[in-house]
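Example protein as discussed:

>
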Amino acid sequence: MSLSVLILSFNHAPYIRDAIASVIHQLSYVDDIELLILDDGSTDGTQDILRTLSVPQGVTLRLFLEEHRGVYAITKNLNFLIKQSTKEYIAFLSSDDFFSEDAFNAQIDYLNATPDCQFVYGNGVNFSNDQLLNRLHIGRLRESLEHGDPLEIDKIITSTVPQLYIQALLVRRSFFDGFAPFDESLIADDWAFNIRIFRRLAERCQCFFFIDTIVFHRRVLDTSASRDLKAHYHRVLQVARKYVPADSSVFYSRFYVRCVRVFVKNRMFKRATSMLVRLIALKLGFHRHSVGLEQII
């Protein structure tokens, strides 16, 4: 069995060795690993670490050390790495996260036994300062994943901003043939990726599976892009404008409520009031409730 692991890195020198080591540990059950790493012009010594990296037999290392192009290049870089990959299965990893031991063992067994299944999702866990926090795929999303219906998943993930992390995904390389799963017109977002792959699955009448095991550990950092409220919500709106039905009152209601809570928590009372007004307009049936949201955020 062969596996391609795709990693994008940028200024994660303190963590990237752990990420790579966790990939190498998968040799306990994988015969052939192809590790593709694209670094987006790191300035903290990450590229020096990568240049001097040695890997054991069974791992093929392919490095792409680029000049910095920023977040707008992430989707293009990920699609590029997918095109470069050559192995049977593909997994994704952030350069500040790491895989669990035997991360994909159960998923590989299921895919090998089920030729019609195109990918298997697992679960993950947040951690900070070596302390485990919460599991990632929980509640209604977890229940829908267990049901195995891609149309149900599409409904769930377009009614709210889901926490569905691609680091827990193992996918057949062939599923991406003739298909670029990352939307290069958007800033990178697991959300758009997941909408696209589940819709493709439904269109082709194919299936997926979910195994509730911890596949990866997600490092919670103060520098995470999602902690920049303005950038985060602009990314959310980019995806929503393109993939969420314009008349989706469920999505926008939840979006406004979430914004109100976050803005109040951060003492951004003017923005919170604006979102509350839009929520009321939506409830009263005004169709132009979302016009100009980007300017408010």
